[in-house]
Amino acid sequence: MVKKGKSRGGRRLRIVAGEWRGRTLSFPDNPGIRPTPDRVRETLFNWLQPTISGALCLDLFAGSGALGLEALSRGASHVDFVEFEQKSAQAIGEHLELLKSDRGEVFREDAFIFLEKRELSPYSLIFLDPPFNRDMLEKVFILLERSELSPKLQLYIETEQGVDELEIPSDWVVARKGKAGQVRYMLLESKGREES
């Protein structure tokens, strides 16, 4: 859990659509954080339109919280934000308070430890936007393979240009993918989703 306090925002984040459309929030100027661009978020949530309402989401490596906040704005029932960097985690908590939302919870902890100790089966959507590092995604896949997951689970992955070379485990299928500049992104669905 994150303690409340005043964060000093150095950069801005705009919520694209939904309940909080057009709201602009500040977040700490941390060189490791790059919010998902508006255009990419718009595309992603167009893909998710049939399933986002009422979804229980996990925003892993939350950073600015852009993906989880957008999900809440568009009708997700709850988002758990996991962010290790203290100022960033604190800022997400302050954003939820500012938006008067009780549908989000912030966990200031290592993403891999969170995956190892938490029950993941309730989640229907997991956002994976780690610092640009392919090894992190491969480690996440290993931890997910060890967990009991919902057959309806969707994974959103955002990374640098090499995402096409990322080895996707055999129990996942690429439902959608796109690119914007140096950003590559894709939506994966569990093969169990097709069978259920």
From TrEMBL:
<keyword id="KW-0698">rRNA processing</keyword>
<keyword id="KW-0489">Methyltransferase</keyword>
<dbReference type="InterPro" id="IPR002052">
    <property type="entry name" value="DNA_methylase_N6_adenine_CS"/>
</dbReference>
<dbReference type="Pfam" id="PF03602">
    <property type="entry name" value="Cons_hypoth95"/>
</dbReference>
<comment type="similarity">
    <text>Belongs to the methyltransferase superfamily. RsmD family.</text>
</comment>
<dbReference type="InterPro" id="IPR004398">
    <property type="entry name" value="RNA_MeTrfase_RsmD"/>
</dbReference>
<dbReference type="GO" id="GO:0052913">
    <property type="term" value="F:16S rRNA (guanine(966)-N(2))-methyltransferase activity"/>
</dbReference>
<dbReference type="InterPro" id="IPR029063">
    <property type="entry name" value="SAM-dependent_MTases_sf"/>
</dbReference>
<keyword id="KW-0949">S-adenosyl-L-methionine</keyword>
<keyword id="KW-0808">Transferase</keyword>
<comment type="function">
    <text>Specifically methylates the guanine in position 966 of 16S rRNA in the assembled 30S particle.</text>
</comment>
<dbReference type="GO" id="GO:0003676">
    <property type="term" value="F:nucleic acid binding"/>
</dbReference>
<protein>
    <recommendedName>
        <fullName>Ribosomal RNA small subunit methyltransferase D</fullName>
        <ecNumber>2.1.1.171</ecNumber>
    </recommendedName>
</protein>
